[in-house]
Each structure stands twice: as C-alpha cells, then as structure tokens.
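**User:** Everyone, produce a chain:

**Assistant:**
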Amino acid sequence: MSDQAETVVIVGPCAAGKTTLRQGLETHGIQARVIAQEHSGIRGLWRKHQANYVIYLDVDLPAVHERGRPTFPAWLHNQQQQRLQEARAAADIYLDTTKHSINDVLRRVLSVISN
C-alpha cells in the first residue's frame, strides 16, 4: 500500500458481511465506510464518499437466512439487488461472500488493495 491511507466504501445487500469487513479493514489501518445503499432509492449514494475503492459484497438468499435472518423475504432481497445494480457495476472489487469465511473475504480484499 502507499503511504497515503487507503479509503474504501463497502456496499451490498443485507447480511453480505459489510460491517464485519469494515471492522477487519480498520484493524489493518484502512479507512472503510459501509454505505446503506440497499435501503435507499438514491442510486448513487455510494459515490458521495470519495474512496480509493468501491467494494461490493454479494450474498444469496439462503445464506442470508443462515446468517441469522431466517425470515428475510425474497422480495426484499430482490429489491436490494435492484437498488445496488449501479454500485455493483462500478465496483473495483466484487466478492460473493455466500461460501467464503470472514477471514477469506478480508484476505482477498487486502490482496487487491495492497497491489
């Protein structure tokens, strides 16, 4: 990484691991902000934060249910995916966290940021 602090914004649907990734990145000195884009109709909300990287974390509905939200409705997951289309297309880093551990996701993101 450069001498200047890296900054990232993290977007994705509910239960994708955004907050957990933010906490992990901050322990490595990376300034990270979770953007609750999935709850907003403002498509470019994530753009308001000038960051070095946009990270998009994805997750499928069965994994959302396994991650402590067993009644999370499919219609809401689909709505969040729609709201996040623009952020997903613009992401510097895209990771589907469905089958990856917290440590694996953090390691993958750090490997991209450090190069």
User: Anything to note?
Assistant: The helical segments are 18-27, 61-66, 74-83, 85-90, 102-113. The longest strand covers residues 53-58.
